Amino acid sequence: MSINQLVYISQAVRKMSPEDLAAIQETAKKNNGPLDVTGSLFDNGGWFLQVLEGPASTLDKLYKKIELDPRHKNSRILYNEPANFRTFPRWSMNMTNLNDRQADKYDELVEVLDAAQANRKIGSTSPAVALLKIFKN
Length: 137
Ligand SMILES: Cc1cc2nc3c(=O)[nH]c(=O)nc-3n(C[C@H](O)[C@H](O)[C@H](O)COP(=O)(O)O)c2cc1C
What we know:
4 helices, 5-stranded mixed beta sheet, binds flavin mononucleotide, blue light photoreceptor activity, BLUF_domain, 5 strands, alpha+beta, Alpha-Beta Plaits
């Protein structure tokens, strides 16, 4: 089945606690699995960046619901395009806290988040495409 990848960025309305984030992940896992949606949610303390992968019409409906969530605001789609494969095939919703993470991809991810926040491209590419490229490597 053909799938889309949708990436959006949003602003948390308050500092999210580990419990807040766990609650979001629990709901996402419960709902996304049966919908054939996979993805990853990046949180850097003040901003969310979420990658959602699945059938296009399912993603559109899911995004409309997520967008209305009072835990975040100023949600903006960065990317919504057909994809040949899933970047996160094993995750109904993976969570990555960018501030806590000592990973080799940390600097790249922070750069992508900064660019997304400032609405600027990285080289010739959008932040969302740059993000997806990081995970294809
Ligand atoms: C940053 C963020 C990401 C979210 N991601 C998802 C998601 O991937 N899937 C999902 O079902 N709900 C997600 N939610 C929660 C939804 O906004 C909404 O609360 C939930 O889908 C309601 O589910 P329910 O009707 O089963 O209670 C997210 C919320 C936030 C704040």
